[in-house]
Design brief:
Aldehyde Dehydrogenase, Chain A, domain 1; 2 domains; 6-stranded mixed sheet; binds nicotinamide-adenine-dinucleotide; Aldehyde Dehydrogenase, Chain A, domain 2; 39% helix; alpha/beta
């Protein structure tokens, strides 16, 4: 085992749990046993909630301009430790080193946004009647929880940590049991940046801890990022206890390619979108709708896909189960009559035989009823469907239950605008394969890709992590009286 066993982080210290249930953390790159992660119990969660509750009065009363000083320091620490954080991310998640560097750079951007929160939450004040002022204040909620998935071990935690904490809350995070090492490293950096003990806590575990978070009377709000099946369970369970909840789910993102699209740019974008992070991104292109004759672009997409080499510029998928699931999808599509133009099955990387790799895969002549057309595959696979018109393409996109992202590739501005209006997704790209809105814009999909109101990052997160207090005051009776005062 390369690293010592993962511990919980409660009240500023790494601590053990009494539970003897544990899972192995295996590197998808080569199958190395990295560490063990404990499956904590409700007792551990109770200790974390107690620590967060104790820290809350002082932290929430600290002025926000002081609170964000921690995040200025945290940002410089992320910069200082970028290489080491990226290496750890790559090791536990399987993505390439370059992708991991981009992930840590995104953490830095998310933290930068949090340092701007004092300017964004200054509230409003207005004389609403003679001598009467109304004022709004964003008040922190208390102890909040963040439950995160495996595919971005550092970035998704940083979607919630800087904003929720800078806004005055105390947090408990439940990392993915598949990639718990990065989160532990973030705890050390937050402490080094000066975050008081108890403001940030980590409880490792599986569904038992997730359920306990949803049920715990001391937790005010729950954010979740993961698959749609679990997002629904968490949203239902947390809201059944009248908690505020925001649960982001899975995705099936459609790219619509029109015949006037720029061939090289489109092919490069499609290939990068379907294969980046080995297709394990909720913003990955998973289905492509070819409108009319775009064979010349499909040929170029295949050329681009063939340049993507597992173990070099393509990382591993998270585990063997995932590798087998992805390959099953490809087998099934082939049996149903789809044509495999580029085949990533049975990929082995020399010297890393214990790793779990799937090569880039392009499947053509997919029909909308096939499971590769409908379901989230979460691997470097693109399923191409063919239509004659833009409206048919939109009908396919609209019929899928998810709604994270959609993109169109065209040189026709009017057509692009039409697709922006008609696509049923929260984030739309025009000639952009991965249309992630950058700060201060907020990240969030529609339909079965998100449950709850608002988005998880950017300005929208302010509404989720705070409640609004409205005060109406009058101190000068000489101002006179009208019907409202
Ligand atoms: P997952 O749903 O399996 O796990 C997410 C979290 O839920 C983990 O912390 C896990 O421990 C916990 N969990 C798993 N099973 C549970 C259960 N039965 N009850 C309670 N909790 C449970 O997701 P994953 O495999 O870690 O991540 C991949 C998924 O996340 C994909 O579907 C991807 O699209 C999605 N995702 C979505 C977004 C988004 O912004 N919409 C971002 C990243 C990932």
């Amino acid at each position: 085992m390369k690293y010592s066993p993962v511990q919980n982080f409660i009240n500023g210290k790494f601590v053990n749990t009494d539970s003897d249930r544990k899972l192995s953390v295996i590197s998808p790159l080569d199958g190395n046993h990295l560490s063990d992660v404990p499956m904590s119990t409700t007792k551990d969660l109770n200790a974390a909630v107690q620590a967060a509750k104790t820290a809350f009065p002082a932290w929430s009363k600290t002025p926000i301009k002081e609170r964000v000083q921690v995040f200025f320091k945290y940002k410089t620490l992320l910069e200082k430790h970028l290489k080491e954080l990226a290496e750890l991310c790559s090791e536990e998640n399987g993505k390439t080193y370059g992708e991991s560097v981009a992930e840590i750079e995104k953490c830095i951007e998310l933290t930068e946004f949090a340092t701007s929160l004092p300017q964004l939450v200054s509230g409003e004040i207005l004389e609403v009647s003679k001598g009467v002022e109304c004022r709004t204040e964003h008040v922190p909620l208390g102890v909040v929880a963040s439950i995160v998935p495996f595919n971005f071990p550092s970035m998704v935690p940083n979607w919630t940590i800087p904003n929720a904490i800078a806004l005055g809350n105390c947090m408990i995070i439940k990392p993915s049991e598949k990639v718990p090492l990065s989160c532990a490293r973030l705890a050390i950096l937050l402490k080094e940046a000066g975050l008081p003990d108890g403001v940030f806590n980590i409880v490792n575990g599986d569904s038992e801890i997730v359920n306990a978070i949803c049920d715990h009377p001391g937790i005010e709000a729950v954010s979740f990022v993961g698959s749609t099946k679990i997002a629904k369970l968490v949203y239902q369970r947390a809201t059944s206890h009248f908690k505020r909840a925001l649960a982001l789910g899975g995705a099936k993102n459609h790219l619509m390619v029109l015949p006037d699209a720029k061939p090289d740019m489109t092919a490069q974008n499609v290939a990068a979108s379907m294969s980046g992070c080995a297709g394990q991104r909720c913003m990955a292109a998973s289905a492509m709708v070819a409108v009319g004759n775009v064979d010349h672009i499909i040929n170029k997409i295949c050329d681009e896909a063939k340049k993507i080499v597992p173990g070099e510029n393509l990382g591993a998928v998270i585990n063997k189960e995932s590798q087998e699931r992805i390959e099953r999808y490809i087998d099934e599509a082939e049996k149903q009559g789809a044509k495999i133009l580029v085949d990533g099955r049975k990929t082995k990387v020399k010297g890393k035989e214990g790793g779990t790799y799937v090569g880039p895969t392009v499947i053509d002549y997919v029909t909308p009823e096939m499971s590769v057309a409908k379901e989230e595959i979460f691997g470097p696979v693109i399923s191409i469907m063919r239509t004659n018109t833009v409206d048919e393409a939109l009908a396919i996109e609209n019929a899928n239950p998810y709604g994270n992202a959609a993109s169109v590739f065209t040189q026709n501005g009017g057509m692009a605008r039409y697709i922006i209006e008609k696509a049923s997704a929260g984030m739309i790209g025009v000639n952009v394969g991965v249309p992630v809105p950058r700060e201060p814009f907020s990240f969030g999909g529609w339909n079965e890709s998100k449950f709850g109101v608002g988005d998880i990052t950017g300005k929208s997160s302010i509404e989720f992590w705070t409640k609004l207090k409205k005060s109406t005051t009058k101190w000068n009776p000489e101002a006179g009286v009208n019907w409202m005062s």
